[in-house]
Every structure is written in structure tokens, then in C-alpha cells.
């Protein structure tokens, strides 16, 4: 399957029964796949008249209790930001897939990682977050989508799958999830009619004095709980290296191969990949920063996760960056050369901060 198809099949097997979207490359295989599968499983597929309409249809379906999803690519996700903010303000669970392309503006249809800031820092207006999952294989496109629906329902929050055009278009074998979808928790808050009960209210318009402040503190409490319980990362030789290579998504996949090649040459190099871009696994990286000499961040942008890496490291390690912002996907040999260059630079550091 392609990554886009694996993502869409993951949504179906997670119990998604409402999808609305609007075409944009390089994610068009997602709505095409959902158009076929929703009719097969009794769900609803809508090709909306615009991105704004698509995200607000998701809001309505989520308010009625459906497992709902939309997908798009970078400029389309920009148009959906207002709706995502409303989803967050209303505490509605939904899944948004962003198969990134190059930017800013219309940019190109080549794969890129330029939407990290938009995804992890809120993106729209107001004090809010979405959980952000970053797959690096077709298998993870499938598995992370299933998990995204579970997390969305568990915490009543929008969850973003942040992929890119390379992951969306590449083909790999996939083990499909078998068995029933993960059961959703009870949803007594949904708008399903009020016969024999008091009406439910779902809104983000809070104008009485102190009401919005109380609501925002409630959201922040939820975000702190997510940061405490749902943070995920992958590491390899991270605690026994001089240079730690940090990367996410497609770059992580390639960087992991470069780290293995470097280790085969006897270089003391490790690998670190945040799986949740928000909440960012900063606590673990802070611990690693005190054990290594340097951290090399590799991204297909001009340095976005780099800021979170610097904050987490807190000055405990040298920070290096290698960026590819023009839609180019780096090769393993290019990253290996960058690892070699920075390993040489670190070898000239004779003193280290005491543990």
C-alpha cells in the first residue's frame, strides 16, 4: 500500500465513519480511498466545497459522537486552522492528517517538514494544543492513525498526523490491524437529541466574566495530563554516544540508517526520534543532553524542531543543525557526511561539563 492508503485504511479500522475533505496534492489518495471504503462500511464520505467546509463538517460529526477525520496538505491545513481551533475550544475529538508539501505559500508538491511550528504551537488562535504524531514508515502511517483516534477520544482533543509527501506516496508492505476498533469511551456530552434528558451544550463562545478563564485552565490541565502520560520517543545508542542525531518523520528514517552506518565505522553516534512532536519528549532529551557532547538536528526545513531541541538541551550540549528546506529529501550518505563533520568538530572539545 502507499502511505496515504495505509493511513486511510487505519482510519477505517479505527472506527472512523465520517470523512470530509477537499483535494490537494500529495494527499489525494486519502479522500479517494475513503470515498470507496466509507460506502463499504456504512460510513459517510463528503467531498466538501472547500477546506473550511470540510473541517467544520468534521466538527459537526464529532459533536454528534462520530469518529471523524479530515486530511489535507500544507496550504489546505492552513485554511482549516480556524476549525481546528474551534474543535480544541469545544473539546471535540477528531483526527486531522497533514501530508506536508513544500512552502510557504503554494510552494511545491515535493515533500517537506515546514509545518512543524504550525502543528505543535497551536496553529490557530487561542491557547490550545493538538496531539501531534509523526510516523516514519507506511506501517506507522497505519498504526499511528488507529492510535490517533484512541487518543482523541480518550482526551477529547483533536489529534494531528504530521506526515509528508514522501511518506504518503511511498509503497511498503503493511500489517493491517485486525479485530474490532478500539472501543470509544462513553460520550454523554454528544448532541444526539435531548429526549428524556437535559440538553447538552457544546460551544467555545464564553462571554460571562471569568467563564473563559475557567475553561482555559481546564484545557491546560488536560494538556499537562497528556504531556505526563502520552509523550513518546524512540532512541538507539542514545545513552552511549558523543553525538546524538535527532530527527523526525522521513528524516528520522534516513538518519537512523546513517547512524547505523556511522556505528559500523566505530563512531560514537546515537539516534533520537520524537514520536509525539507535541507533547515534545523534552524531559528525556534533557537527560541525554547531559550525557553527550553534541546533538545534531536534521530536518527538511530551516530549523523548527531545532528550537525544541535547544530548549530541552538547556545549554548542556553543543547543538548542530542540518536543514533541507527546498523539497529535497536528504540521502543517507549526505547525513553520514554531516555526522562525520560534526563528530570531527566534537573531537576537538577537550573538556566537558562535569556530570
Search tags:
five-stranded mixed sheet, single chain, alpha/beta, 355 residues, seven-stranded mixed sheet
Morphology call: globular
* Oligomeric description of these chains: single chain
How are the strands of the biggest sheet laid out side by side?
Answer: 2-1-3-4-6-5-10
Q: Which whole number gives the mean pLDDT? A: 96
Class based on secondary structure composition and strand pairing: alpha/beta
Count of helical stretches = 13
Spatial gap, N to C terminus? 48 Å
* N-to-C order of helices and strands: HEHEHEHHEHEHEHHEEHEEHEHEH
Number of strands: 12
Give the helix level as a range of percent: 40-55%
What amount of the residues lies in strands? 15-25%
* Low confidence ranges: 351-355
Largest sheet data: 7 strands, mixed
Overall radius of gyration: 21 Å
Tell me what the structure shows.
This protein has helices at residues 3-13, 29-40, 51-63, 74-79, 81-89, 116-120, 138-155, 165-169, 211-229, 249-264, 282-289, 305-313, 332-347; strands at 18-21, 44-47, 68-72, 94-100, 131-133, 158-164, 233-236, 243-247, 269-274, 276-278, 294-299, 318-323. It is α/β, with parallel strands linked by helices. The strands form two sheets. The protein has a seven-stranded mixed beta sheet, sandwiched between helices. It is globular, with a radius of gyration of 21 Å. 50% of the residues are buried. Residues 351-355 have low confidence and may be disordered.
